[in-house]
Amino acid sequence: MSKDTLEDFRVDVAVLKKAYRLMITAKTMADTYEENKAICSKYVHSTSRGHEAIQLAAAFQLKPYDYAAPYYRDDSILLGIGMQPYELMLQLMAKADDPFSGGRTYYGHPSLRREGFPTIPHQSSATGMQAIPATGMAHGIAYLENQGLLNADEKPVVLCSLGDGSVTEGEVAEAFQMAVLKGLPIVYLIQDNDWGISATGKEMRAMDAYEYAAGFKGMERLRVNGSDFAESYEGMRIAFEYAREVRKPILVHAKVPLLGHHTSGVRREWYRGDNLQQHSVNDPIPRLKQTLLSLDVTEDEIEALEQEAYRTVNDDYKRALEAPVPDPSTFNLHEFAPTPVTEEKGERSPAGAEKAIMVDAALHAVDDILRTYPEALFYGQDVGGELGGVFREAALLAKKYGDARVFNTPIQEAYIVGSTAGMSTVGAKAIVEIQFADYIWPGMNQLVEELSKSCYLSMGKFPVQSVIRVPIGAYGGGGPYHSGSIESTLLTIRGIKVVYPSNAADMKGLMKAAFLDPNPVVMLEHKGLYWSKVAGTEDAKTIEPDENYILPLGKANVVQYADDAEVKMGNSMTIITYGMGIYWAKTAAKQFPGSIEILDLRTLNPLDFEAVVASVKRHGKALVLTEEPLMNSFAESLAGRISKECFQQLDAPVYTLGAANLPAIPLNVELEKMMLPNPDKVASTIEELLNY
């Protein structure tokens, strides 16, 4: 905005007084934390010192039906929407009644579902990563509006607050791209204080965020002086009005001083030098005080506002000091939200039904979901339009349900994964697809930082309902970037569920359960089993269950039992596996009739360890079989758990078999065969173990 005189930005005096009181409140909180740093810096924190004007201006535009994604120094935004200093101090000190996380996460990292307040989902430390979930919220709002599933009288807007340094993140570019591509109702507030931690703007960027945003066609832009409350208020009013009425994205670039420490752990005196004095000239508090005086607000009235802020902060600080700490026994609560799917339901093998291949069972499951749940949508690379997925796993769905519900995305794995957190927050239920497991890595940041931690760190307020479909595994000549297995990496991430069906019936039942689960679920779908064209995988084609069939996650299945006679003679063993391993095991077991039990895990997290233990104890000998390179894999980990739990009943070491420990699967099919397990390799291992 080019004008900066008060006459150009008339704001009601009552609003100015409220802003001043809250600015003093924020400053007094920062001063209190500094004066009591032995207590208040036990846990790292940042404050809004210097950013108060633009943050309050933004907060005052938010309505109870809006959504916000603040960043880590936005405590003035939280004060502006009505949070009390006491509540923020409870988080500062990691107290039990911290309303956001119960003492689990940092100061200024809110997660709020409260009547009369905008919704603020959990997010990570917000150095750019929050842009994707925030844009996902706007995307979900636009979708629900398109489907007539929102209150038509309300026009929700998403506020996404970012520091200027974070805009250099690639994930921010993905968010901006989708915001303009889809025309989403979101306000990106960029607070530019010209610092990262110790790096200045000129070291980190070739342009500021306002200039950068010009490259995103359709992104409206504003510049404001973030030190001037009146100008900031008018700028944010215009921005929210634009997003609320036009339903398109807008970026507000606010220049602000940094008057506090970067964080309590990185102190300003270590690196700021004369820069701190230069920034102090633009302190928004004395500027707003002069504005009030020019409007004939008396010194006494101003002092009364200040005294009210001082008393509130002082009293709240004393209360917070005395507040109880969390009960240590609650440390493990809320890893997952409870799922409603606990029993197998529907007809697994209905009379008269025909056999279906796995890829069709998956397609039909998604079709059933889209037909039944209008809040459901499906997106990813090439799943929409004419193609319907590179494996035809979404064939005709876009034609049937329209481009608003089934659509293609850019090559943006981070957005595909991370946007589901925002979708979940607003009530849209996303099924998404990563085209190949080998390409999931750009999405791992969002999966780990945004999806997996949300339920736990928000004390159960924000579980992320998300189904992430991932074609996986080798299928003959796919080569190094289309054949890989990733389950061990996924299984190191707590807070997500990992499903790996091996046949059509399981695929359909598990897909339905995954959709109804309120937590993030990754569906690993083996490409070599999709069509049962790989030799030995004919059993992956099964009678197709009916549309009501649901199979709970975390239930293993014995797909082949050993004969009682062989068990009694001690001539039996169990093979614990999943995916393609089922068919290697079945083929190999034909050479050892009656001696081999095969346990299909079906779900890798939650793991049906009780079924594993029961199977091992029945036989005393066990092989854990995987398609992954073996070293440091899930299979080796499971073998270790079995060895500990079943030590007294084991008649031999727990064997493991997997792919060779190489960085990629070679293109040539003969080289691929050398690397991967196969029925012959499994048979050789079985013979050795039975004869142990």
TrEMBL record:
Residues 356-532 form the Transketolase-like pyrimidine-binding domain. InterPro entries: DH_E1, THDP-binding, Transketo_C/PFOR_II, Transketolase-like_Pyr-bd, Transketolase_C. Its EC number is 1.2.4.4. Keywords: Coiled coil, Oxidoreductase, Thiamine pyrophosphate. It comes from the Bacteria. Residues 288-315 form a coiled coil. Its cofactor is thiamine diphosphate. PANTHER family: 2-OXOISOVALERATE DEHYDROGENASE SUBUNIT BETA, MITOCHONDRIAL, 2-OXOISOVALERATE DEHYDROGENASE SUBUNIT BETA-RELATED. E1 component of the 2-oxoglutarate dehydrogenase (OGDH) complex which catalyzes the decarboxylation of 2-oxoglutarate, the first step in the conversion of 2-oxoglutarate to succinyl-CoA and CO(2). This is 3-methyl-2-oxobutanoate dehydrogenase (2-methylpropanoyl-transferring). It comes from Pontibacter populi. The lineage of its organism: Bacteria, Pseudomonadati, Bacteroidota, Cytophagia, Cytophagales.
